[in-house]
Amino acid sequence: MYGGFVYILSAPSGAGKTTVGNLLLREVPYLEKVITVTTRSPREGEKHGVDYYFLSEDEFLKKIEKGEFLEWARVYRYYYGTPKSEVERILSQGKDALLIIDVQGAFQVKEKFPNAVSIFLLPPSLGELKKRLTLRGEREIEERLEWAKKEIPCAKHFDYVVVNNVLEKAVEEIKSIMLSNRRKAAFVFNNENYQSLHLGEDILQVIKGEDCHGNKKV
Ligand code: 5GP
């Protein structure tokens, strides 16, 4: 068994992707978040190795040189990057990798993994986005809103778009996208990912042992 799916979740800052991401991680089996690297300093409560790997700019630039990132981008004034090794580790365990990254990163990942599934999370309105950023006590609100207006039109290039109006509903929608991927016959049979089907040993033996008598795609 090898190779799960790569999921890209992008959204403007304040749209709720961290909350949505955390709920997905709790509710979707086989899903693991890729901990990414940033040069910004930790917010209150954020932990190194849990929320991000917080590195200095020098350390980050060295990692770029060594080719350690699957993608990297400058967002606001900081660098952010996805370590290749993290993604490879998750996929090699047959799990799905959740990348919560900005749109620049999303485009880079899609180039390298054309089968990656990209999901754009939209806030219901710009007014609501501003409210959420303000409630969060974010420092760079105007800068983040300006950035959001540049990112939002990119939603049309993603595979899926989900609106985070009612949190539970947004999570359910993304969850159903993820669960239906794991039901793709190609995923189940080509990679021998049978475990989530909870099949009896007898039917498993039939599936593995016999060829289909019609050889057409249905
Ligand atoms: P924040 O500073 O609010 O945690 O994140 C700012 C933006 O950077 C968010 O859109 C977040 O998804 C994105 N981001 C976090 N990690 C990465 C990464 O590794 N690569 C890219 N391209 N964006 C990232």
TrEMBL record:
GO CC terms, sorted: cytosol
Catalytic activity: GMP + ATP = GDP + ADP
Enzyme Commission designation: 2.7.4.8
Keyword Transferase among UniProt keywords: yes
Highest taxon above the source species: Bacteria
Annotated binding of ATP, by residue: A11, P12, S13, G14, A15, G16, K17, T18
UniProt-listed Gene3D superfamilies: Guanylate Kinase phosphate binding domain, P-loop containing nucleotide triphosphate hydrolases
Localization per Swiss-Prot or TrEMBL: Cytoplasm
Domain Guanylate kinase-like: 4-179
Principal subcellular localization: cytoplasm
Pfam families reported for this sequence: Guanylate_kin
SMART domains: GuKc
Claim: Cytoplasm is one of the keywords in the record: yes
Enzyme kind, highest EC tier: transferase
A GO term for molecular function: ATP binding
Keywords: ATP-binding, Cytoplasm, Kinase, Nucleotide-binding, Transferase
PROSITE patterns, A to Z: GUANYLATE_KINASE_1, GUANYLATE_KINASE_2
Its job: Essential for recycling GMP and indirectly, cGMP.
Family: Belongs to the guanylate kinase family.
Entry protein name: Guanylate kinase
Gene, per the UniProt record: gmk
